[in-house]
Amino acid sequence: MLMNPRRVLLLMLLPTLLLGGCGSNSVKDIDGEGDTTGQLGSPVKRNSPADLYVELGAGYLQEGNMSEAFRNARKGLMLDDSSAPAHALLGLIHQRFGENEKADYHYRRAVKLEPHNPYALNALGSFVCSAGAYEEADGYFQRALGNPLYPTPWVALHNAGRCAERAGKLQQAETNYRAALRSDPQFAPTLLRMAHLSFESDNYLSARAYLQRFEQVGQHTADSLWLGLRIENQLGDRDQVASYSLKLRERFPDSEQARFLNEAE
């Protein structure tokens, strides 16, 4: 049985649409056979001849096989140019190729075809935010959140927060992050961003608490280990500083953070 193409898109886009996040959180089972989330208020065909190629293309994309991902996405559109998931997939592929004009076209085409599809709206919002169009991006995130059937609102809330953070609106960013954590208290990317915000506001105990929650559900990156090291340095826990330093050197020896650590000693 083919996977619902909207679930394929969620699984495919979730790690890449977390603006500055780690993408290490597990994906919950959020899409059933009868789900109409992306179709709210829009008469969209449930089955499309493009669905098989969207699924294949998404699989190749996750494996890093860009040529096969592109070939299958294009084949899907040749069979059904009205497939929003196929356009969203092509948008992501072109974005990875650095072909932003083409990516913009396909993301916007997906939203035009399914204007209430929260996955397509979140994808377009993430894309335009990466180009610095923060206000426009927030509009797409809010439209995604306006769909009462959106099963993963914490993703759009996180992206709205990250976009606000990039725009220098730190209070709005924190508001969005807190809303995301109310929706999913274990969403690792948001826990890490809240640890960063707490550290940057000199609230080191709060930063430690958020990072500890992150460690329970996510996998460390060079960034998170470097943050933990700096938090514990401020709190004076030398054992934890040593532990984070060791993990950073062992797991990410070629990272910029490891280089900073080596230069500081």
Write the layout of secondary structure elements.
Blueprint: H1 5-17, H2 51-63, H3 66-79, H4 84-97, H5 100-113, H6 118-130, H7 134-145, H8 153-166, H9 170-183, H10 188-200, H11 204-217, H12 222-235, H13 238-251, H14 256-264
Describe the structure in your own words.
There is one protein chain. By secondary structure, the protein is mainly α. It has a domain at 5-186: Serine Threonine Protein Phosphatase 5, Tetratricopeptide repeat. The protein has helices at residues 5-17, 51-63, 66-79, 84-97, 100-113, 118-130, 134-145, 153-166, 170-183, 188-200, 204-217, 222-235, 238-251, 256-264. Helix 3 (66-79) packs antiparallel against helix 4. Residues 20-38 and 41-45 have low confidence and may be disordered.
What's the quick description here?
The protein contains 14 helices and no strands. By secondary structure, the chain is mostly helical.
Number of helices, counting only DSSP H or I runs of 4 residues or more: 14
Structural class: mainly alpha
CATH topology of the domain at 5-186: Serine Threonine Protein Phosphatase 5, Tetratricopeptide repeat
Unreliable stretches, pLDDT < 50, 5 or more residues?
20-38, 41-45
Oligomer: single chain
What is the share of helical residues? 55-70%
